[in-house]
Amino acid sequence: MRLGLYLNLYGTPGERPALEDAVEQARLAEQAGFDWIVLGERHLHRPGYHEILTSLTWLAAKTDRIGLATSGIVAPLYDPVVLAETLAHIDVLSGGRLTAGFVLGYRPEEFALYGVTQAERVARFEESLTILTRLWTEDEVTYDGKFTSIREAFLSPRPLQNPRPRLWNGGRVSAVLERTARMCDGWTTSFNELDSDLPSKIAEYLSYPSGEGTLGRDVILCREGFNAPTSQDARRALEEPLRDLYDAYTGWKRTSTDASRYTQGWDDIVARSVIGSPAECAERLAHYEQMGADGIILRIQPPGMPQADVLRSIEAFGNLL
Hints:
globular; TIM Barrel; alpha/beta; two-stranded antiparallel sheet; 11 helices; about 40% helix; single chain
């Protein structure tokens, strides 16, 4: 099973954006045999949240081999040419380690901040990925879209990976699954996707035809994760900071259909996660592999969890690889 470590980019009041803890976690994950470090994106978060693309560049410089992934960039918020150029250069600087994962986004505040109409997000998403993919793979691009028009455009340098870095897309509705199969190379789930829903969602995603130029069909599950000597130890370390994070999510996702999943109890969370003793975590990973997962992204550190607890859990997961 391929494992990714979802890094905590949340800031604290008065913190300078140094990311020392994230760098330490990334280096340990690299030594432990993880396949990726994975970054998310958030805006208008009062305590602070480290910006995704500059953080990815910083972590690329602080690691050697581990894959660098996003899950995900809110594509409709970006100028697609700037996004294509920036991500291409990250791939070059990292020696070809980038996997670019995207999402549509859901917070009205973030769309307003960037001057983007939320009703246009699907059209902007598709146009952005079309331009990005073409700039990464073609010598010269002319494109007339609803939001962007370019003439005889090219990137130099293009991404190091040939033909291009892999693209992931996250979401749960049928339209997202179809779009992922058509435009991307892997589907990433939500962290709160129920296990009971996953088999049908995976089957539906795999049923849609692949688009021209896509590079495969990865199923990447995002799960809460914590590996401790016993399940009781895992609960003591994780429950309080994870509950604080979920309380915040109930506000952020007030317009989303899955908001209620962040008010569920501990047993419900464990039932859709990789949490417990080493034997229990190994059993959960095997369960997801049998379900059809090609990789699992583990969110080990909610904001507020001590660094020492995180490092011990990363090492424990490494021992399962």
